[in-house]
## 1
Amino acid sequence: MTDRRHRNAPARRHGRTRQITPRAHWLLLSVIAVTLSTALLLQGYTHHMFGITSDAVTGARGRSNAVPRQVTHGGPVIADAATSAHTARVKDRTLALTFDDGPDPVWTPRVLDVLHRNHVHATFFVVGTQVVAHPELVRRIVAEGHEIGVHTFTHPDLARLAPWQRSLELRETQLAVAGAAGVTTALLRPPYSSENDALDDAGWSVLKQADAAGYVTVLSTQDAEDWQRPGADRILAHATPHGHAGQIVLMHDGGGDRSQTVAALSTLIPRLKAQGFRFATVGASVGMAGELRRAGPGDQLQGMALIGLLRAGDWTVWLLGVLMCVAGAISVLRAAVVLIAARRHRRLRTGDRGRSWGPPVTAQVSVIVPAYNESAGIEAAVRSLLASDHPVEIIVVDDGSTDGTADLVESLRLPGVRVIRQRNAGKPAALNTGLAAASCELVVMVDGDTVFEPGTVRTLVQPFADPRVGAVSGNAKVVNRGGLLGRWQHIEYVVGFNLDRRLFDLAECMPTVPGAVGAFRRRALLALGGVSDVTLAEDTDLTMALCRAGWRVVYEEGAVAWTEAPASLNALWRQRYRWCYGTLQAMWKHRGALVQRGAAGKLGRRGLVYLLLFQVLLPLLAPVVDIFAVYGLLFLDPVRITGLWLAFLLLQLLMGRYAFHLDGERPGPLWSLPLQQFVYRQLMYLVVIQSVFTAVSGSRLRWQRMERYGSLWAPAGAQDPGHGLPPQDPGSAPSAPYDRLPPQVPYDRLPQQVPYDPFHQPAPYDGLAQSPPHNGYRQPPPHNGYR
């Protein structure tokens, strides 16, 4: 018989519902991604492409035919290299102390202290990355009357760079100095430079380009060789001039441990002063003026922006490293917890005590099939239910389908199958319609795209021999696993969902009985007021409500159902978006379980915390892992990064192999697991990001149908129209037609909710004598509750 019920959707009774698809956040995320990428690329380039090394690391000196003779035999300060090329020497009995590779947060302040105590000014050739990291030291250098020079941004050998890279190195350093101290400088010392006679043609081309940019090149005449760290005495000897000629002394305040330099400097200055030497900056020692100039407003702003961006990059890399460690720790923790729990769960289920739930459950079962445009697979689904080796009544609730779903089922004329039509009101309303029409205490809910094996219903209801059990989750498997996307979902179902359910069963905090294969006590559902339409994940919401009401929810891995998985990325996105968003809604709705006691407390402090950590936080951290992996491959040790990635992949493979073993699956599809890391995984964490933004924005989504592909099949025996009907004694009267079944409680007369009291303590449960006391949680308003 076909019932035609015209009932408005519960959501419509709530009034106008805001339904939006947030898109502005994708623009925001894109801007953040571009900014983050720019900062990381700059940070990687400036910190890892070159870097400070020993000044002795120089290439072999090449030909010097292009170097003018007056430069080779001239003074260490070289100007107008691109034109007439003249040089300047330091005045007699004058020393210009110069310090390279700083500023350093440890050694530069100590050098400045020594200079200050001895009333000496010096010249500091700074590295741009160090200026960005320690701008306050540059300000101190300038404030104390010292001179600043450019030593490039990343300390490369300029002779080996392209002209545009040289310009970038000098320009970035100049901007960093302007942003840090508000000045610009005309002085340049190329890294790995030495004395005039060491210049070759490649080095001379660098000086000519620098001159065209307005720089005066400063070489050295006396190398203290402190970069070798030979000891303070040797540094002192190398820095002491022979005779009275003026010198430009090369020393270092950065690039490593400079304690020997500080010690030698403390002795050098007083000793040479006693010998009649004076100390001056490079500019003062050669009579040059205007080497330091006030930076223009534009340069200062650009410099401050550069410093801010690069420092943000430094903090970002640090934060990425921390989050990478957190994500890794969470992943390893989940793997350990899930594997240990799965092994223990299997031992309990296969042991003598854990195998039997009690006396066999043989009572007839009502099977509810909510269907909305399921014509592609509904016949296979219904016939598979008829093939059950357990007595069933089948109720197909057509929720306003437009593809002839109800007509198709009716045309089959299968005994024991009842079709109820209603206007489109959503899946929860369809389930409630079926619940009101059911005649059995035990109710199985199955999606219209799912087929059961003959023993699925029988296996699924056996746990109800335990009067404490209010719901049972079955084992859903992917039927269309032929393509790569199907294999990935097959892996996820076996490794993710089923391993998790074993853990939840063991911890007594099952958050979800899947809509594809689940069984319930009808009176438990009626006591809750039926299936709520407040969330998109009605199965998760319902399961959590049962847990909070004191019922136990278990997992029966032997109750296998085959379901169609999305066959396109677009369909997969829509499905997982609905699942994830609905789960977030359910978690928020039942957050009160976190502070409750008993079964509700187990759900809150075990189940909800687990979901928050591993299904929300971990996917949100997943982009960090990808970003850091790319950053590491480009700028860090690629071998180490690849090794870490392979280690995590091996961990997933081990989990997958064990999960497939538990589920009796062949491990062949696991070969596609490495490929899953490059498409599927990114799609999943983008789904979580979208869901979180949707939840925060307070949006509400409709129940949307999924694409069906007709890949379902009915098991052998499903063609027998009498198979699965309740057995009858010979000569007994035939079963009453379905239109003569006892009247059921209409959905709009289901028990009303009472205000939820978080301090209410449920009475002890004494088995079949009574249902677990209703927890009375109040239905939240029709919006998702995230406002």
Note: The domain at 69-295 is CATH 3.20.20.370 (TIM Barrel).
## 2
Amino acid sequence: RFEMVGVGADKQFALDAVAFAAQPTISKDYRNVFHRKVKARDMLKTSKTFVINRSTFEFGPLLVGRQRPDDKPHTEHSEQLHITNNGPFPLTVNFSFLHGGAGLCSALPALHAADADAGSKPQSTQSQRPPSANGGGYASAAAPASLRPSGEPVFSMSIATMELQPEETQDLLLCAYPDADGLYEEQLVCTIKDNPQPVLFPLSAIGSSPAMEVSATSVEFERLLLKRSDTKRVTLTSKSALPLTWAISEESLAELIGAGAEAGDQDFRLDQTSGTLRPGDSTDIRITFFAREAQTVEKSFTIEVSDANAELGVQQTLDVSLKAEAYSIDVDVAWPNPDVDGLDFGAFKVVDAQKTSMELINNGKYDVGFRFIMRKYPVRDILTISPAEGTLPPGGSREAVEVVLKTEHELTLTSNTDLRVQFTEILTGEVLQDLVMPVKLSAHAVFSRYAVVPRGINFGPLVYDSQKERTFDLTNTGEFEFKFSLRHMDDEPASDKPPPPPPPTKGGKGAAAAANAKETGGVVNLENFAVSPARGVVEPGGTTTITVRFSAGASAQSFSQTMAIDVADRSPDDDPLGLLYELLAESCIPGVATTDYAQIFEEQAVVSRGDFGVTGLPQNIFAEEEKVFCFGSHMVGQEVTERFKVVNPFKVPCTVNLRCVVQGGGGGGGGGGKGGKGVTAADPSAGLSFDIEPKKCVIPPHEHRYVTAFFLPQSMQIYRAVFEAEVELGTDASTKMLCFELLGEGTLPNLVVQQPLARTDDGKPLLQFPRLLVNWTARLPIQLFNGGILPATFTLSPPADSAFACASAGQKLTLDPKTSHTLQVLFKPTGAGEIRSSMELAVMNNSFEDACIELEGEGFVQDVAFEDMPDDADGEALKLGEVEVGASSSLSFTMRNHSDVPHRFAWPSLPGVTFSPSVGHIHAHAAKQVVVTFCSDKPVVHSAVEVKLSLQRIQYAPGAETDWDDTMKVVKWLSDAEFKAHNEKLRRAEEAAAAEAVAAAAAAA
């Protein structure tokens, strides 16, 4: 706050001073600087993206050793940064790197490949080579020295200086070309002139060379007997952050399998020799050794690793050595089945023990000791071997060995080698490990297997005293036949032991057939259920159909029983109490809903009590207290239909007979309608006005059917009948029959002319219009009233004379009961004189209500008349409406001279209202359009103000018959004095006209 004091004065003055200080600056918002942004992402999966949680722009993995082109850098190695001047001043910004572009290089965590199947990995040792610079793979001994950081700049930029105007944006091209493996971190330093605070943008790039790891550098195969093969697996894992390619060198591959070797002559075979790996991925090379002859084989092969496009050539080599041996022995085994290499016990039931044998043969010169080894479950617990050990004499001698298999559980062995034969040298006791022989065991022990479809039977509801049969299938899904039996779930199961064989009798085969017949058949009775057969035998893959018969009771009742199905030789854990099988059924009595009136009359109204007065019956209602359905009052001879809903709320279908019974007295009129079909009455010859369709229907359980009731009144009277819906086989009185009364009335429509009130001498309605100028229009109403109880449909014929018109004439209109309707009739005379016409009122379905309405009017003419008045004009009254002060509103009409003499006309002045033209001539039989404009510069109100047009007959001098009005202008040049005098004259004339108009209005009021 500064103060200044004037010299020689005591007054002080206070001045406020405000200043703003700012520095040149550029935008540091990553959303403006960088094209792509993510909140968080794996560093190895990022490519040219700003990672928000690390606040770093990351190029991601880049290939080491790639040279930057002179013209355009590689797309994956370059990115545009948007540099924006968001300050108020022009600026100069210099770009540099904090570490000179070389950045800080550090190792990355190792890549993790997907774990391979541990059981298929070779058991040799892993390579012990040191990790590469990226901390991921295993470097080859042949890795080039260029993989170590050179210290040269890794990051570069397109320009070092940039000048920016306020709000200007320019792009800065950044490039990154790592020269070694590892994470390079750098910072782009943006130094702004006149701003001591530089702007830093952290940058990073990952240099990655093709690097791969091999799971084993040495693969050793176990000794193999001749004519056998073995397969080992070597896993290759990518330790590079970029895709790479690998291939076995052609020289080592030719040395391994032999150049041009025939199929089957190779010692080794590889399933793949080249491929591509993504970062962290693994692949397996399956190496198969073939024992063709007794020998020891030692070979190796070399794996060459390159980048994905082989742009930089071979970057790594890996050597894998192979060692295998094939041999022959003089000890042999003779299997019981020459076609099976091992012991195959086949398939059998768990409860049965199996026995087989094999022979050990010594073709050598000396004794050989043998011993059977069983070290693992389940072989150790299920096999009994005799003898389990001994000595084999030389010279081709044979030793028989018996093997017994006994198990208590289901078992499947497929070429199991847990049983081995171990041979020893008798004199020294040395175990010959190379002669240990596995014995392949195959066995399949099973329990009885079965399936039941369906797993239960529900007969559902049945009509009382009826029967129904259902079946289910018992299928043998096992490999052996089994016996089955049925029983109540609470009964004791039958013994699985077969009965003792009967004493031999004469009859041979017939006796055996009789014994087999006893194993099948029988019936099991469970309350109202009968199941057969109660026992039987099912072959493997076969199916037995079991029939269940249910006999419904005499009353409504539910039945539920559970039986047990016992299958012989099944697993003790599989349905130990037998397979429980549920049987359900229900006995029902058919019927329909008789008291649910809301459903029965869902398309009509249901009231507790009806009001059937003398003024007309209510339409389409059901009165619960009276049990009466009322059709209402309807036109005589017109058929009415209503639908009723017959509901079956029970679980069994029902057959319903429907009929309509006419009550005595108050019967219908003459014939017609449906001819009385399906109706019972005391007088069969009497015509009936009620009918029902259909006469019979079948309603499924919990469904409904709609029946249609027809009402056709023959005369003006009340009709009554009884609706009956009777259920066949229904025994319950409350649901056997649906019964209620039908009520309807026949009547005719009624229509009365309330306006006009005037009548002619013969009593016809008379619509009399006032005298009208020719081509003027007047409207009068015709009001009709429906005093009946039915809607009345009518038509009004058009007037014969064109001077009368009615918009509704010729249309078919409907008038509801106790309502009125007004029609407008227009009168527009086209000539002078009285005009008469008439309109015929015709009421449909009741010709007694037809009427003729007489129309009278008179037209006259005058010398000058107004025509083409606005639509909202009332006679000769113009409605200019409400207008804002200073705004204007205009209307137009036509002034026509009907005489043979020309007239002079003049319109008086009214404040705010002008007529154009206001003065002029109108020739004989000519017309002139007049525009009325309402515009005032102050508030003014005109309500029913009468403006009188002044007319004078005139006669033109010969040859001077020229049209004229004050809208026609003649230019006359005036001096200033003449112009002022002219304006003053006009002003006085307007004031006089206004005063005259006000006086005329006051006199009229």
Note: The first helix runs from residue 30 to 33.
## 3
Amino acid sequence: MQAIWLMLLLVVNIALGNSDIDALLELKKGIKNDPFGLVLNSWDSKSLDSDQCPQNWYGILCSEGNVLSITLDNAGLVGEFNFLAISTLTMLHNLSLVNNNFSGSMLHISPMKSLKYLDLSLNKLTGSLPPSFVELSSLVYLNLSSNEFSGTIPNVFHKLDQLMYLDFHGNSFSGDIMDIFYQMGSVLHVDLSNNRFSGTLDLGLGDVSFLSSIQHLNVSHNSLVGELFAHDGMPYLDNLEIFDATNNQLVGRIPSFTFVVSLRILRLACNQLTGSLPEALLKESSMVLSELDLSQNKLEGFIGSITSMTLRKLNISSNKLSGPIPLKVGHCAIIDLSNNVLSGNMSRIKYWGNYVEVIQLSTNFLSGTLPNETTQFLRIHQKKERTSKQDATTSDIVQESTSPSNRRNLESLPPSQSDDTGNINPTLMKAKDPELVKNEEGTSSPMSILSASNPSPSTSHQFENPSSLKVSSPDKLVGDLHLFDGSLMLTAEELSCAPAEVIGRSCHGTLYKATLESGHVLAVKWLREGITKGKKELAREIKKLGTIKHPSLVSLLGCYLGPKEHERLIISNYMNAYSLDIYLHEADKRNLHPLSVDERLRVAVEVARCLLYLHTEKAIPHGNLKSTNILIETPNRNVLLTDYSLHRILTAAGTSEQILNAGALGYRPPEFARSTKPCPSLKSDVYAFGVVLLELLSGRKSGEIVSGISGVVELTEWVRFLAEQGRSNQCFEKSLVENHNGEGPFMILENMLKVALRCILPASERPDMKTVFDDLSTIRES
């Protein structure tokens, strides 16, 4: 084999000459269509530097005549990629062709020992993996996902001892999956999902170094059979954080996962697993587990009390679980118990606490209603109907998630009227008949409960009828109503009688859209109990915040302070606008015109201008800046900030919770992790603003896990990594690159990225808001 490769390389060298430029020009010949002219118009043999490096060749990084990197991501290129042509690039360490239309096979990929990063994902490459892959001995990152590869995997990975990231998902690879794991060394991320792999999943037989290093393992949507870890019991997966074996043919009991202390996400849905629920995963001792999906199996037995403080999402629907619903659910936010044989009275839900956002109980044998005194579910709407299960009463509760993306048909969704994630909740269900929901509002309980009959989250839909979200207003208000705007004429009685509609829930509380008899529409935030300061101090701080006025702020109009701690409301105008989060991630679904490069720059400048006002004129940080707290009005695209400086009204515990929430979403500055009592600051605002800039540029969510590379998980780390590799152009959203005219938009994006990278520097090196605003204004004026 080695002799054959030497002969091929000799032929290539004779045909192409010895220069890296010749290799690139040969590669160029295979490109049949370049819709944006990125390669065909810039790869010119006459455009060379003095050291024989390409000058302004798109996607090429070169030093002293040696091509180091080829990055052609999202360029829309069509043609057959000539792997043999680049065989002479002896210093090439990066080859990235993400999201093009390249065809051909990898049969002639050469033994490029310098290559560390190979990403061919989202193309139309075919054929099998060649044995010559074993010669790519320096590979750290390998992504062949979403192509048309097939065949078995040759014995190549045992020599790729530096490999950390492997993604083959979305192909037609086949063979015994354990043949791959036997070869693995100290890899961190393995995704083999959506292929045709077979065999058993017996990791106890794999390499010890693989077991101790693996963090992310996805083998879902294959044809795996047998029991999980049958040979030697549960292996010691010391660092495993995510394990997904959904949609296979696994049988037997679910292992305890007792010693997998880092496990955050466990998905074993759509298999044939039997036995009882693994109680250890539902207990406080489950360590850091946050998501557990065991749906669509054959599990039996009772559901014990759930005491885990970390579990947020639990789906055990479509099994054969029986007995009453659990008395406790810990800190779960999303619970799906539908399509089982649960029985008893659903009043036990009153003990579940106020963490729950979505509940699915449909297609069971439950009876009863929620007691009137239950107050933790004030955001729910109820109806009851008969089902086909032996004509038993099915009660299904869906507490409407408050994310903007869950309310597709509401006309205005300010981020102050949203939750803390901005994410679509996949378990929300659509009622079978929205008219039934409308006709049965307000029945049986002061709190509203929406019942849906769709039993499985895998077929879930969004609500189609906004009226189904209507809820009762709070009970009669008997406390003190303070108004800061003389133009607002309102009494506590009028406020308590106003029809209210839940439109959001955040770490601060629940947000209502309240319509007064006069037609004035308000946003009323009911603050969570236990997070605000004492009544007198709270009133003083809210009044101070009410004096802050700026054209880009949704200012506070007033507050209501009742005799009890949970009776505290803050009032502002309801804005007919979508959040920046919606514009970036759901514009197509909402029929919104996407933000252009110039519009994104304008948003950045206006947000910076408002923050500069808060910092310099009021000497106060916003404290909770994120894309869901930035509004863009239509049609004039005015930019507004909401939820400003609410840390001033919170207890230390409430402030800590707000900061933890910001951390989970990717907005918390690194210095807060080292502080015992972190508090929002001007510097932390600058960091959060830098993250918002990165969202504007990349179109990605701030806390999204965007890479499996060691140490690169969040948006900020991903961008830093690409910038350090000289591949910063990969940070930009595809549509911004495709729709550009000339170099102007590219320059704007590049300059905005430079500002963003400075904003996320360590606190001591981070610029102030004045510098950031000036830099962005200069970009806009140039």
Note: DSSP finds 15 helices and 40 strands in the chain.
## 4
Amino acid sequence: RDTGNCTKVNGAPGGTNHFPDSLNSCLRVLLFLVPFCSSMAKKRRRQDDFQKVKLKVGQKKIRPENSTQSNFRTKAIRLPEQLRCLNQQQLQPTNNRKLSVQDLLSQIHHYNASVRQGALLGLRDLLSLHPTMIDAHLSSIVSEVAAMFTDKDPTVRGATVSLLQLVAPKIPMKQMSPFFPLISAHLSSAMTHIVEAIQEDSLLVFDVLLDEYPILLASRSNMLLKNFVELISHHHLSKGAKGAVKSSAWTLSVNPNRTLTSQQWSLNVLIRLKKLLQALSDNALNNSEEGEALFSRKDLADLCHDFKWLEHASGQQHIEIYEGGECWIPLFSLRSLVSVGGSLEEGLSSAEKLKGFIESIIPLLIECWVEASSAQPSSGNILKPESQQLMQQVLNIIYLLWRLSEQQDKIHKMEVWLRTKYLKDFNHFFMNHFPYFVCDPATYLKTPQGKRQTGFPSNGLDHLLLNLTLCDIMVSLANSSTFQSDSDWLDRIRKFVTEILMDGWKLNWKQLNRLLGVTWRLMVVQRNRVSTERLIRAVYMLYQQKNLAFPVRSLLLNFFSRIYLRDEDFNLLGSNSRNKALFHWLSSLPVQLVQLSSRNPELSTQLIDTIHAAAARSNKELLSSLQATACQIYDPHDGILVLLPAESQKRLVQLLYFLPCMPKNLLACLNRCCIMGRLSSSTAAAIVGILHTRSTFSGWTSSVESSIMSDVDYFSFLFSTLAGFSSEELSWLQDSRGRPHICHTHVSPVHLFLTDHNQFVHHCTVTEAVCQSLSTIPARSQCLDIIHNAIHKHLADFLVIPDSMAASILRATTRLVDQSCLPSDNLKKFLASCSCSLLFYVVTLENENAKLA
């Protein structure tokens, strides 16, 4: 204690001692820490209750009384079915990234566009390597891929189109039909999407579906046709005259945000619309043909029966009729799922719907035409290639709409409505600069002064189809009653058509088909003999061109056949008229048939049918030409009869019925055709039957002219056909040395030459036809004498004859011999020799077969 510093204040009694300052500070600190020390002691005592017991090494922990038992036991369970499923999943095909179809389908809706694209491309590669996976996952593939039509990423849409191009050809229409409503709904969403790029890609999807499923797409046309209209136009509301009534209309739209120009976009849309209308037209045509076929079959089933006839000799006994077959019952077919519901029927299935669509699309097409024609050079009929393509599609769509109206309109009400509503506009916009030409791009260049040079019309045929389509549309609006009012533009069309026909153009099938259609319509509209003859002469000049392709030649042939066969219905040539070009064409048909030979069997068949139709009408020019070329047609070596297929051979054989006469050289050719084996046995028998019908022994009540075929020539044909071999061939057979196919016998002087089985059967069939003709001759004794004299003159000196000849001679004589008509001794001797030789051969053959058995 430091007391030295302690003082007493003023020495006053009872004064206070003052401590130093440092001691006061320590006292204050101690007084401040006393409460804290007491609180720490309390905390230390409180933690003693939760003191962790530290265990020594090796000492077991004491389990608390409130502890929970958490121990458990496990046991493995084997599931074979689950293991099999796992193995099957491991065996499923995968792509190069080891992803299966399910894995790829699950990635199609990924948020990342690159993942979606990779999934679609991987699915395409996987399905191209394993096409069988398409059927196994068809529902998932179709639903997932269809949802990608409206994807925002262009690369994903491109991959979708690529996958669809791979999958669609491998899925049949029957399998796709249940899913097509879903596909068409997504396609419609893409076509009407607010994003222009999605609309453009939807046309690519439409192309794939139309190529593979035109019928299914046509069944959804009610929705798609509206989409096509909306792609190139927008709805415009215009007030009426008084402002009270509003009428709706579609007007052509221009979108500057597109990557394509207005004309290019309209062209792309119109091309697809034309394809859809083409599918609708073809589908309607097929349905009408099926309906007509069903109606005809039903009528036949109700009105008549199928009969089987038993062949008998005429006049011997009653002919029994056996009813065969049953009425034709149409097959039951399931109703298509696509056509269920009234809203899903075809968009142009009725005349009212067709009228509504025509009223909405024709003004837009006229606007497209005006837009394309306004960008042309100073001469309005010279077109740029781009404008020509757009104008061609405009006319194609109108042409198809006209065809649909003709298919649906049976009483020509639609034709009157179309003429009243659109003839004036068509004449003003379309025919104003007719005919049109295509500008050659090489001659339509910029000059150094910045001016354009007007090119000359191109020498190609790009403009021809455009003009012909326009002619076809305009002529379809005309008829014979309106010819006077339409004579102005009809004369321009007639002049254009005549120039094309006479200028020697090398036309393809499509152009010629359209040209001949316009020509036929002009002939029907103006039934004037002079103008009709001028058109026919122009077509005949085109027909006379050399080296025409088969489709072109076939079209021309059909055109002339139509004129000749339907002249009575339309009276195109006038009463009692003879068109020189038409009859020159008819007389040249047999010559063309000979010259064509077998180079084109289809065209030869078409020529034969035309010749048959004209011969049935007894056309003198054709019959005289057919008579002059008959020996060339029926030549047994290189004639067209032995070169064409069996059906054409039958038609040629039927022409024998119309020939004015049957000369000896023609009968010789027909005999060789029957026995050489180049014709079927039924065709050869038909020749024998037709010649018998043309002979004087046919039994007709009316007399047959003897100038057609003499009796001597007819019997010569029958005996030569009965023999089956010519005299030169029989002479060659007499040298039997070294010939293994000759059956020698000591019981008969006649030896047999063994023919092959097919030749023997053929000869026997023809023999039956000859015997049928011989048995109908009334004077049997004279007929038997003729056969005897022929055998004695031509066969008696031969020691080797074919076995088929011996059998045929025996068959014919047995049909002629009866109690009133007996053969002579010489004939009996020859017949006995043939019988012994045949019997010896048959017995020898049976013995050899028995030994082999």
Note: The CA atoms of residues 696 and 703 lie 8 Å apart.
